[in-house]
Design a protein that fits this description.
mainly alpha; 4 helices
């Protein structure tokens, strides 16, 4: 049995935030993304696989990461300026990390997995990625300068 010390107990609210993100955004968007990308680039040869990988990194990745950080921060009560500051601070490092992690995952998924199973396989890779995202999302709120006119 796995137990945590009392000071490291399970954060139920954070767990629910992540589960709701997966159910509302990640799961459905992956379904539509993989169906869309298989229609736009239908072949499974190496060149087509690299095209799909590029589109995932250039289009899907940045959009879904912005949605993740915005949704998570919004549920934690951050204001719009705080969410924007978080995106400015976290999105580029996250995308850079994604460029290291996702290409191999995408190559395997697009080259060897049938389209109807691609969301499942991608979600398996995403499990590890989500650990990284929750770490990034858990970083201290960025400072926000509020300019007021007096």
């Amino acid at each position: 049995m796995i137990t945590l010390p009392p000071e490291e107990s399970l954060d139920l609210i954070r767990t629910l935030r992540m589960a709701s993100y997966g159910m509302l955004f990640s799961g459905p968007s992956l379904h539509y993304w993989f169906n869309f990308i298989s229609k736009v680039v239908p072949k499974k040869d190496v060149v087509s696989t690299f095209k799909k990988m590029f589109l995932g990194q250039a289009v899907y990745g940045p959009i879904i990461n912005c949605i993740f950080f915005s949704y998570n921060a919004g549920l934690q009560g951050e204001t719009i300026p705080e969410i924007i500051a978080r995106l400015k601070r976290d999105i580029i490092p996250t995308i850079k990390s994604g460029l290291i992690y996702w290409p191999l995952c995408d190559f395997i998924t697009f080259k060897f997995i049938p389209v109807h199973l691609q969301p499942l396989v991608s979600n398996s890779f995403a499990f590890l990625w989500t650990i990284y995202l929750t770490y990034m999302a858990g970083l201290k709120k960025p400072g926000v300068k509020v300019i007021t006119s007096s």
